[in-house]
Amino acid sequence: MPVKTLRIPSEDGLADAFAVLPDHGGRHPGVLMYTDGFGIRPVLREMAGELAGHGYYVLVPHLFYRHGPAPVITLPEHIGEEARPAIMARLMPLIQEHTTERVLRDADAYLDFLTAQPEVSAGPVAVTGYCIGGLLAMRTAAAHPGLVAAVASFHGPVIVDGPDSLHLSQLTARVHLGHAETDMTPETLGELNHALDAAGVDHTSEIYPGTVHGFTMSDTDAFNPSALQRHWDRLLPLLDRTLAGG
């Protein structure tokens, strides 16, 4: 499938990114895919390619472009538990600097770019994300209710209270949340789903059995093949229902 290397203009500079397109020509529904905290790497390129193969133009930006082009740190081919603490120690300051204000400025830039591409069809788009990218996806959907028709977050945090909370009442997109067992207790899931119901959000939100945080990522010890398939089984019908032509 065609892959494009891109530079997206934003208020804070140029964000490097890539896009994967279906093999056939024409215009396709757009999907903005946010990476996990480890960022752009081969597994994300594979996942974007899988999604593009189902008929979508998939845009994947480098989240931490303010600190330099991807990769901002060198990652091993497999991110094992023994390497994870040192990697996260280097990434956490970048994640902490990625404030809500920066997230929303970037979301504006990414969506403006995505919808302006000649290969992207007119109409609504979808946003999906993994780990911290799941929260970014939810914030993007809430900030663009007229444009984002579907949003999916996998093993990502969802902040529903506190000073930096996500305003669920702003969400008009259909939502799927796939949680890891280690990230969400049944009791917390019940509270979250009650808040989504109270806000009138059209959603599915579930704990994927037998999973730990990061279960979709095949280059980590957290990877769970059956949970990755469950993720596709939830994501693809969601996009098919909400994006015409997918």
Short structural description:
This protein is an alpha/beta fold and 246 residues long. Helices cover 35% and strands 21% of the residues.
Task: Based on the model shown, name its key terms.
single chain; alpha/beta; Rossmann fold; globular
Report on the structure:
There is one protein chain. With 246 residues, the chain is α/β, with parallel strands linked by helices. The chain has a single domain, classed as Alpha/Beta hydrolase fold, catalytic domain (Rossmann fold). The chain contains six helices and eight strands. The chain has an eight-stranded mixed sheet with strand order 1-2-4-3-5-6-7-8, with helices on both faces. Strand 3 (30-34), helix 1 and strand 4 form a beta-alpha-beta unit. The longest helix has 18 residues, at 225-242. The protein is globular. The two termini are 16 Å apart. The model has no long low-confidence stretch (mean pLDDT 95).
CATH class: Alpha Beta
Radius of gyration: 17 Å
Number-wise, the strands total: 8
SSE succession: EEEHEHHEHEEHEH
List the helices and strands and how they pair.
Elements: E1 3-10, E2 13-20, E3 30-34, H1 42-52, E4 57-61, H2 84-97, H3 100-116, E5 125-130, H4 132-143, E6 148-154, E7 174-180, H5 186-198, E8 203-208, H6 225-242
Parallel strand pairs: 3-4, 3-5, 5-6, 6-7, 7-8
Antiparallel strand pairs: 1-2, 2-4
Helix pairs in contact: 3-4
